[in-house]
Write a structure and sequence with these properties.
- By secondary structure, this protein is of the alpha+beta class.
- It has five helices and 20 strands.
- It has a seven-stranded antiparallel sheet with strand order 2-1-5-6-7-4-3. The chain has a three-stranded mixed sheet with strand order 9-12-11.
- A hairpin with a 3-residue loop joins strand 5 and strand 6.
């Protein structure tokens, strides 16, 4: 099949005029807010490429001529770089980030909530960002007795709050999506399409083991407002080893349980990393389960796409 990409600014397809200078485009789709990026590299012999305007909005569609294209992301231009020499070509690289990551998302502010669910709180944060909220139903109903956002940007606050509950937030496509890390589900709660990779047909792969200390349980503490005592909860990792204690106490039993479960998941998941190069499929998504087979012991099995 023939790879095909469209880069639109407004209703104008930039590729016909860009094609004579086009070298590559790279799109990174990641869990969370840090790395959703677009890079476009062009031949810049003689400084022929005009500088882009900051915050120009680019819509990218990718796929194959035979089967059609689908939306790969909406990005805003953030910067550029140019260089050459040493016998190599002069090139110009334009970088852009997910369009929802605007200055509004980085503005500080204060707010508090009493007896609100995770969905209620994150819906308010999404509204501050000018976005709608999509949240995994298994996360949505978790109640928090009191919570404050103090001199924190909406996106930093949402990221920290989600992490406390084993989740990740991602602003994209006009929505603030909240998924449970490692679940293989999207923000709707439905399973994401599994990414199946095999050694035969693979375009490249690399696996690394990262041994970490093993813990049997995670303990978190909280302040019981009824009797004024500090109490603890425990979550099993399913492994053998010492107990891991979370240092900072939580405001309620529910928050302590969520923090212990989240930490236990991190301790058991993050023991290795792998990368697989495969032919592009628009159905693939960050956060999906990756099933690897035919490679070797330590690489074969289930991974979570980051």
């Amino acid at each position: 099949m023939t790879p095909f990409i469209q880069i639109l600014q407004g209703g104008t397809d930039l590729m016909p005029s860009m094609a004579p200078y086009f070298i590559r485009a790279s799109i990174t789709d990641a869990v969370g807010v840090e790395n959703d990026t677009l890079e476009i590299e062009l031949d810049d012999e003689g400084g022929q490429i005009p500088l882009p305007a900051e915050d120009d909005e680019l819509t990218v569609l990718a796929g194959y001529r035979e089967t059609g294209v689908s939306l790969a992301g909406i990005f805003k231009v953030q910067g550029w770089s140019a260089g050459g020499g040493g016998g190599g070509p002069e090139t110009f690289t334009m970088t852009a980030r997910a369009a929802s990551m605007t200055q509004k998302g980085k503005a500080g502010g204060n707010r508090h909530w009493d007896q609100k669910s995770l969905q209620d709180i994150l819906a308010d944060v999404a509204a501050d960002l000018g976005l709608a909220l999509s949240i995994d139903p298994q996360l949505a109903s978790r109640m928090l007795p009191w919570l404050a956002r103090w001199e924190a940007s909406p996106i930093d606050f949402a990221t920290r709050l989600a992490a406390e509950h084993g989740a990740a937030v991602k602003p994209a496509g006009g929505r603030l999506s909240v998924i449970q890390r490692g679940s293989g589900r999207g923000a709707s709660g439905e399973a994401l399409p599994v990414i199946r990779v095999t050694r035969i047909g693979s375009l490249g792969w690399q696996g690394e083991g990262e041994p970490r200390p093993r813990f049997s349980d995670v303990v978190a503490s909280y302040h019981d407002g009824q009797d004024g005592r500090r109490k603890t909860v425990k979550h099993s990792t399913g492994k053998r080893g010492p107990v891991h204690t979370i240092i900072h106490p939580r405001a309620s039993e529910g928050e302590a349980k969520a923090a212990a479960a989240s930490k236990a998941r991190d301790l058991t998941m993050q023991t290795g990393s792998a990368s697989f190069t495969v032919t592009y499929d628009p159905a693939y998504s960050a956060g999906a389960i990756v099933e690897a087979s035919g490679f070797r012991d330590g690489v074969d099995g289930r991974w979570v796409s980051e």
